[in-house]
Design goal:
The protein has 10 helices and 4 strands; from the N terminus they run E-H-E-H-E-E-H-H-H-H-H-H-H-H. The chain is of the alpha+beta class. The protein has a 4-stranded mixed beta sheet, covered by helices on one side. The structure holds glutathione (GSH). The site of glutathione has 14 residues, from helix 1, helix 3 and helix 4. Glutathione binds next to helix 1, helix 3 and helix 4.
Length: 241
Amino acid sequence: MSDHLTLYDFHGSPCARRVRIVMLEKGLEWETKLIDLTRMEQKRPEYRALNPNGLVPTLVHGDRVIYDSNVITEYLDAVFPEPRLYPTDAWTCARAKMWQAFELEMAKEYRPLMYLRVIGPLDRRRPKDEVMRDVHRSTDDPAHIEWVSRVYDGTAVSEEEAALLTGQLYQRIDQIERELSGEFLLGDHFSIADISVYPRVAMYPMVGLQIDPAKYPRTTRWTSAMSQRPSFKHSERVRPS
Ligand SMILES: N[C@@H](CCC(=O)N[C@@H](CS)C(=O)NCC(=O)O)C(=O)O
């Protein structure tokens, strides 16, 4: 089997970024194929043939297709074990995976705000019929079509709902702040837990949520240390530099 790696990716996708970080940590090279989430390309039949969930990222390794960022990172860690990013000890590995589960919950709270505050304004730079034409090119699923229409109109998420989601997202930072007892989420060891959670936290400002260093000193220390790591820096862009 060929060792060629192709990542289906999109700018600003925290889920794809954690895969980029893992590949950079392991010194892997890969090809990038962009899936434009603002045009709902993730719902196109040809992409869903690779990833039935219609979400980014998907990794193709030789003739193997792997989707879901946590599945992909665990697969990469098994196939390219150096350096190990998933702890080998059962309890430490369980703790790392609980951070991944935590991040999956954060993602549910984050997604509506992303559409309200980022994708909606981006869409509105074009006439609505143009945006809707692109969506129809990607999918005929009425749920997705309706969602894009509401995102365009700014009615997908109400301000009341946005305020509740904001509260929940800050509770997540409260938890990180409470649990950060060392340099990393698992204490003294850098691991997949940091790689899984950081990309989401780093995107808080994008949806208008600032992380106040006075209120969150440990979280701020952790995010700034992580952001200096070469793999984290180089993963900011979809193509490695
Ligand atoms: N659990 C999945 C979630 C993937 C996911 O939600 N991806 C986002 C980008 S970070 C996406 O494709 N969003 C488009 C959509 O919601 O339709 C994973 O970790 O891969």
